[in-house]
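Structure (tokenized):
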């Protein structure tokens, strides 16, 4: 089932360690099929170099396994919660990328010091309250804090990015880590200034409605 989506998610999963966003078995990706509502998600606790499209798990919106021999990610309940609350989201990425997670560990939102952050996230990336993981609590925190931002820092844990598809969510996970790295260096170097709200709005509009093909 959903062979094309499985193949896409498999290759996107390989981008996470390639871009230094995860270590060993941490992190996950899910993608929701718009037509069927079924979700393709990484299996729990499987190293990235042992993954294959066939090992990915297909579940329904009730969390029931429809196809697959392995257990789905332990974050599945949070993914389903987000999909239920945000029908425009069809891809979710969870990472423990070091620079972005450093802000999360400090309980700090990611400020808009550089144009890339304005263009991709349209404002500061919010940081949630602390919560334990394993049920839908993480998903509830994402919905509580994300607003219009497609990314959220999970306090003392990691990162969630979302998109209209899994590929967009992965792209944002890579860009968020880059923004976090530059932002941290800028703080170490001096006293960076936040970009004003009007400029953020204009940069975001240009990136999302003018830039590209």
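Design, position by position:
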């Amino acid at each position: 089932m959903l062979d094309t989506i499985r193949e896409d998610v498999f290759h996107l999963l390989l981008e996470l360690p390639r871009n230094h966003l995860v270590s060993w078995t941490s992190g996950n990706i899910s993608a929701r099929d718009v037509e069927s509502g079924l979700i393709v998600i990484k299996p729990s606790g499987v190293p990235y170099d042992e993954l294959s499209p066939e090992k990915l798990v297909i579940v329904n919106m009730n969390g029931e396994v429809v196809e697959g021999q392995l257990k789905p990610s332990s974050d599945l309940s949070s993914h389903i919660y987000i999909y239920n609350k945000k029908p425009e989201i069809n891809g979710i990425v969870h990472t423990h990328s070091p620079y972005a997670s450093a802000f999360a560990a400090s309980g700090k939102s990611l400020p808009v010091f550089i144009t890339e952050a304005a263009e991709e996230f349209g404002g500061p990336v919010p940081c949630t309250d602390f919560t334990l993981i394993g049920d839908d609590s993480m998903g509830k925190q994402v919905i509580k804090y994300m607003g219009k931002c497609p990314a959220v820092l999970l306090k003392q844990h990691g990162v969630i990015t979302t998109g209209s598809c899994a590929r967009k969510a992965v792209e944002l996970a890579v860009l968020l880590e880059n923004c976090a790295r530059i932002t941290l260096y800028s703080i170490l170097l001096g006293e960076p200034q936040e970009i004003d709200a009007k400029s953020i709005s204009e940069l975001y509009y240009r990136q999302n409605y003018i830039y590209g093909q």
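Reviewer-requested clarification: The mean pLDDT is 97. Residues 121 and 149 are 6 Å apart (CA to CA).
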